[in-house]
Specification:
10 strands
């Protein structure tokens, strides 16, 4: 059975992520896989070793019980569900589980309260989204509706996007959602090729699919997409990304990473090299 990986820190937003993951699992006849990365509590390093060991064991017991409680509730609601508690950093734990499990996708909440702290805490979600080998759906703390009726796919019309776009079409069909393809013309953004070339490619591959294509102007891609999504009451923004070397990620952080950290609307990141749905 295919699985949807749901990393959780037991926050309210993790609960929202699990609710959406359940909706997706139901439509794809998939199971759920809950993962929690834990650390022992930060304490006085001068405490005796045996006291530190006791605290670590207590933390593991408490976190394990919480995780099993969430998994049992999922099973009680009729979902196939397994769970795993792992000691380690959240990003590395989730990436390791993605590699081992090869899930359909990851659904996770971005923690924080929506301000500057949220940007810092959201680094876990952005790191997973940028490095994962499967699509990653990130819910910001401001998420209201836990369903998908309207989707906005950010297209560049500058490169082939069949894998990521195919994933978006597939998801839209499973949810019977509307899908808008949106290109944002912004200063300093690459615009080398004639849009018509890629519009024709999309028609050639997905001609029978239902979608609308819009081109808008804005000062930034992230701002333009959010504005369009707000005006059209979108429930999900879908963005494609590609593998980047370490230098480009420092000098010019990807638009998808900026979106994960900035948006108040759930965002799904699909890697062009990886996003494939059967």
């Amino acid at each position: 059975m295919r699985t949807i990986l749901v990393p959780t820190d037991f926050s309210e937003n993790s609960q929202k992520a699990l609710e959406l993951a359940q909706e997706i699992a139901e439509r794809y006849d998939a199971g759920l896989y809950l993962v929690h990365a834990y650390h022992p509590p930060v304490v006085d390093p001068n405490l005796p070793a045996d006291a530190l060991m006791v605290l670590t064991e207590q933390t593991e017991k408490i976190e394990s019980e919480k995780l099993e409680s969430w998994a049992q509730e999922c099973r009680a609601n009729g979902y196939a569900c397994k769970s795993k508690l792992v000691f380690g950093s959240a990003v590395e734990v989730v990436l390791d589980e993605i590699k081992a499990e090869k899930p359909l996708m990851v659904v996770m909440g971005r923690t924080g309260k929506g301000g500057w702290l949220d940007k810092i805490m959201g680094s876990v979600a952005s790191a997973v989204a940028s490095k994962a080998t499967c699509p990653v759906l990130v819910l910001p703390p401001q998420t209201q509706a836990i369903t998908i009726k309207k989707m906005v796919y950010a297209t560049e019309l500058e490169r082939p996007e069949e894998n990521a776009l195919g994933f978006a079409f597939n998801l839209a069909e499973h949810f019977k959602a509307e899908l808008d393809l949106v290109k944002v013309n912004a200063p300093f953004e690459v615009n080398v090729f004639d849009d018509e070339q890629f519009v024709n490619d999309i028609k050639g591959v997905f001609g029978e699919k239902k979608y609308t294509l819009h081109t808008i102007d804005d000062e930034s891609v992230v701002g333009g997409l959010q504005k369009y999504a707000d005006e059209n009451q979108a429930d999900l923004i879908v963005m494609s990304t590609r593998k980047r070397d370490w230098l480009s990620s420092i000098v010019n952080p990807s638009v998808s990473k900026k979106m994960v950290l900035a948006t108040h609307i759930p965002v799904l990141i699909c890697h062009l090299e990886e996003a494939v749905l059967a």
